[in-house]
Task: structure prediction
Amino acid sequence: MINSSKTKILVEAAVMIALATVLSYVKLFEMPQGGSITLEMVPLIIMSYRHNTKWGILTAVVHGLLQMITGIQNVLYCPTLMSQLGCILLDYLMGFGVLGLAGCVSRALKGGVKGIITGSIFVCLLRYLCSFLSGYLLWGAYAPEGMSPAFYSLVYNASYMIPDTIIVVIVCLLLYRANPKLYKS
Result:
């Protein structure tokens, strides 16, 4: 027999994945070699706040897999199997999966506004780290001549991740202020 509370969480995860997927197509800004400012992280982060790390990571990783499938051409730009695996891991699985950690950071700080701000910033920084590593290790060839791939990746990814983080934190706070119950299961 299926546990009805797990069924409700699975349905909620599916709704959050669908919402994140739709929001990923509403781009406020898009970089020429990948990366954009969207609200897609918000439902994934909220899932983590609502249902713990396990469900947050699971939801975010499934969304990452969907993003990979819909953006498979990015993976195919990688010239070797190892670089393709690195792209899948850093850009999709870990890049989104880290968003599921927001809830555990928030709970460590007893939730509330402080927990939401800290948890959201923390997971966005982890996602930035994944993007930086991917840019440095896999996409460094796009760095302008004479510029180190590490510096290029640092600046390139910061140019969209910093505004994206600010927007995500503001939206998460506005949603919390409007309905604190949204952040509790």
User: Anything to note?
Assistant: The longest strand covers residues 29-30. Strands lie at 29-30, 36-37.
